[in-house]
């Protein structure tokens, strides 16, 4: 066994390779109280790409008053657009699409909600008004040759509405795909999903004609279920997993959303299962340690803490 890496013991019935969709620079940093300098964000994205992440979500072209943390999108994107990695950006509407396309973005993501309460809080629209807002965005993005991801938040539970019925989620997923989205990302925005619920939603989507190949999953670790939910998704054949370096993140419009699944925790499990990711765990951990220094607090990722003596975790083994 190599120090700093898990022993690789494959389990039957799992994919050979997984694409990690890294969201730390967008989903993570959109939630920070302090303003992070644009150059630091650019360095973060560079280091993530250098660690082998081939999809690094860069920023959002949303209203700067709604998410001031990402108001520097116009300055940031050109600083990283030379990277080989795919650099998706979030756009809620045509104004956002115009801004993204003007800078040469070729992967965009719209972001809907399975629930009315979050649609209102996040987009100032009902679920169907938000879909109507996305329709010309998706059509124009496709015309421009861009890849389009359709995020869907609150797929399992909602802080205002409680548990979210599976058919309600399936309806909005279908609508996003019918508009022309190339892939979905099923968000457990407040981290309340458990593995059986994940399998039930994936099965219902398949029954509604949605292939597993267009489904990504986006788990939050609020109740410590993110890796268990990921394993359920892998067992179902999902090969796109969203994660955030160092476990950064939450959501500014869903107060009970805590950290995203940490990319390091995900990579540790995937390496242990013998699943290829292309990610260098040492480099990734070093990046999250560096980012934690920029933010002035330790990473919540268990793997980052275990692998980085400077965060004090090794001492804690002696307690
Ligand atoms: P609104 O107030 O209804 O906007 O907000 P509007 O359409 O009425 O327009 C009002 C003004 O905003 C206009 O300017 C527009 O031009 C301007 P005026 O004519 O008054 O001078 N405007 C913009 N300016 C810059 N860029 C834009 C833009 N759009 C309008 N794109 C809006 C509606 C959608 C804009 C707003 O609600 C918004 O920006 N929301 C984004 C919120 C957000 O980014 N939330 C976090 C991301 S979602 C998430 O975190 C979940 C996810 O990570 C999955 C998970 O974790 O589960 C994806
Ligand atoms: Mg998230």
TrEMBL record:
Keywords: Lyase, Metal-binding. InterPro entries: Aldolase_TIM, HMGL, PYR_CT. Pfam families: HMGL-like. SUPFAM superfamilies: Aldolase (SSF51569). This is Hydroxymethylglutaryl-CoA lyase. It comes from Streptomyces ochraceiscleroticus. It comes from the Bacteria. Belongs to the HMG-CoA lyase family. The keyword Cytoplasm does not apply. Signal peptide: none annotated. Residues 18-285 form the Pyruvate carboxyltransferase domain. Coiled coil: none annotated. CDD domains: DRE_TIM_HMGL. GO terms for molecular function: lyase activity. Residues 298-319 are annotated as: Disordered.
């Amino acid at each position: 066994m190599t120090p700093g890496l898990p022993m690789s013991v494959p389990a039957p019935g799992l994919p050979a390779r997984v694409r990690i969709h890294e969201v730390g620079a967008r989903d993570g940093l959109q939630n920070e109280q302090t303003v992070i300098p644009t150059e630091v964000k650019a360095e973060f994205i560079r280091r993530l790409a250098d660690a082998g992440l081939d999809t690094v979500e860069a920023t959002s072209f949303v209203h700067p008053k709604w998410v001031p943390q990402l108001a520097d999108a116009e300055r940031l994107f050109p600083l990283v657009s030379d990277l080989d990695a795919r650099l998706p950006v979030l756009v809620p509407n045509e104004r956002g699409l115009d801004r993204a396309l003007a800078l040469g973005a070729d992967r965009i993501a719209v972001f809907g909600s399975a629930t009315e309460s979050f649609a209102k809080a996040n987009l100032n629209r009902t679920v169907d008004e938000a879909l109507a807002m996305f329709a010309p965005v998706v059509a124009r993005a496709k015309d421009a040759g861009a890849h389009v991801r359709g995020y869907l938040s609150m797929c399992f539970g909602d802080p205002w509405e409680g548990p979210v019925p599976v058919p309600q989620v399936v309806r909005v997923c279908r609508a996003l795909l019918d508009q022309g989205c190339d892939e979905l990302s099923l968000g457990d925005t407040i981290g309340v999903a458990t593995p059986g619920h994940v399998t039930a939603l994936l099965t219902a989507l398949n029954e509604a004609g949605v292939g597993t190949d267009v489904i990504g999953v986006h788990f939050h670790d609020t109740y410590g279920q993110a890796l268990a939910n990921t394993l359920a998704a892998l067992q179902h054949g999902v090969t796109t997993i969203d994660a955030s370096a160092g476990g950064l993140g939450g959501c500014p419009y869903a107060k009970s959303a805590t950290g995203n699944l940490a990319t390091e925790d995900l990579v540790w499990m995937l390496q242990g299962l013998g699943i290829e990711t292309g990610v260098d765990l040492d480099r990734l951990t070093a990046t999250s340690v560096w980012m934690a220094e920029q933010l002035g607090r330790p990473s919540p990722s268990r793997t980052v803490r275990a692998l980085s003596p400077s965060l004090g975790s090794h001492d804690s083994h002696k307690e």
